[in-house]
Amino acid sequence: MVAPATNEPDLLKRITVDPSIFAGKPIIRGRRLAVEHILGMLAAGDDVGTILAGYDWLEREDILACLVYARRLVSHERVEPPITTASGGKTA
Prior knowledge:
Blueprint: H1 8-12, E1 15-17, E2 26-28, H2 35-43, H3 48-54, H4 60-74
Antiparallel strand pairs: 1-2
């Protein structure tokens, strides 16, 4: 994997909040593209190239910024995986 061209604080500067756009949801560089939209496309299986092709102004670092933002947001959350039995079944 290639290391990002810039560090996390620089990437996070690409994420902005404007109360007049999407009710203040985090957006990319003040544009009308929400971080959650990019994350949703990645979660749906779209690759970076496909996303970049859809938005001519978008840069790879913008997508990395979305991922850094999401990681930072959830870094303090604890997610409990379901408990399973040795046979792979879930317990109540």
